[in-house]
Amino acid sequence: MTELTLCMIVRDEERWLSACLESVAGIVDRIVVVDTGSSDATRDIARAHGATVVEHEWADDFAAARNVALGEVHAGYLLVLDADERLAPGAGPALLEAVEAGALDCGLLPLHNAAHLEAAPAEVLSGDRRLGEPVRLGRLLRYTDDLAWEGRVHEHLTAWSARHPCRATVDADIVHYGAVPALRAELGKDQRNLRLLERRAADEPGSPSVAAYLAQEQARAGLVDAARTSASRAFELSLKAEGQGAIEAITHAGTIHALLELESGELDAAERALESAHARGVAHPNFAYLRGRVSERRAATCAPEPERDRHLSRAATGFAEALQSRGETTCVETLNGVTGFESAQRLGLVMLQRGDADSALEHFDAAIAERSECLDARLGRVEALLSKDLAREALDEVQPLLHPKLPDGWFLGAWAAALFGDCETAKALFLQIDLALAGRGWLAPHRGQLAGELRGMLNVA
């Protein structure tokens, strides 16, 4: 039988390690754990599960640590997991079948990012408590003498994969808890990654992947100008990439570049990036969603009705296309919610502006069913009810949305009051709109125009 070895690098992982190792019990033949300086019970937990523990001095280099584990493997296949990951229940048979078949150099396993630390694996796998869609990662590797990781952070096997190109998806899911934002903040992962990526970018100036990851971390740190520069460079480099990694490079870099340009109000630059990716035949739900976002923004700035309608139609198409990718496993992580609640609530807003309140309600309800806290969807639902002259239902739902810094809520409340014929209350609510607008803009820009129309009807100064 072909041997399967679990290889891990760990440091102070007593919180997670037992669950990870228990998930591979009866599946792997050996466990190799490289410890990079734990001060808790990590090493004892690993040994209690039968692991070979190798101590390695941390040198700000993830690839170097992973390569230490390779020194303990001499044949068969490797399964690569981190301590905050675990094999999903039922993953064993597919994994072992791939190992025994021996046809693959690299097995791509679907990884599911948990949205909450307390989420059960079944909730993450179903998508109920997952961040984005699952992403395929090379985690089952055939051992060869030239197998070696590269890169001090976001380590990769690019050179090895070029020499050993046989890859395919293996239906052995991984559940990952380390992407939960609260945990990332607690562990300082963003600051660590930014520091290491700055060093790696200096070592590999021609890598689109490194530049894209750097842009991500710079954006998280609030370094928007630097992030836009890195993302633009990443995308330019990705368009020159060749081989099996070209699509992943264009998708990764293109997503970050287009998103940052969109958020900076540079709609032409965002659209050029999306068109360039499309011209290369690269499709991904991120791109469909971002096309929708660009068209949505253009509609908000268009005065002529035909042009506005054209942009709203394009926005609807983009969001609908993103929603159709629900449940697909992709080669690059999807932005959070683009195949679910985020696109659903944005599609609902588009349908509202196109005068289809019934369709809008359907999309808002779908978004709220997935994420009850979706503010855009809850506000949109109230607006849809008002559009249908259902003032009583709207008034009940708008009450919790009357927040001092939320002009949309106060406007919808004023609209509901006006439908009831209570003009004095509606006028009083307009004072709250003005106060809220002093602190922030409209969540949905079209409501500014509607508020202006209602203000005129009520004769509010």
Task: Please characterize this protein's 3D structure.
The chain is α/β, with parallel strands linked by helices. Helices cover 54% and strands 11% of the residues. Strands 1, 2, 3, 4, 5, 6, 7, 8 and 9 form a 9-stranded mixed β-sheet that branches. Helix 19 (407-419) crosses helix 21 (446-458). The longest helix is centred in the last third of the chain and has 19 residues, at 305-323. It is elongated and about 80 Å long. The model has no long low-confidence stretch (mean pLDDT 94).
Strand portion: 5-15%
- The shape is elongated
Query: Between the first and last Cα atoms, what is the distance in angstroms?
Result: 82 Å
Calculate Rg over CA atoms: 25 Å
Q: By helix and strand content, what is the structural category?
A: alpha/beta
Number of strands: 9
Q: Which whole number gives the mean pLDDT?
A: 94
Helix coverage percent: 40-55%
Largest sheet, strands/sense/barrel: 9 strands, mixed
**Low-confidence spans:** none
Helix-strand string: EHEHEHEEHEHEHEEHHHHHHHHHHHHHHH
Determine the number of helices (DSSP H or I, runs of at least 4 residues).
Answer: 21
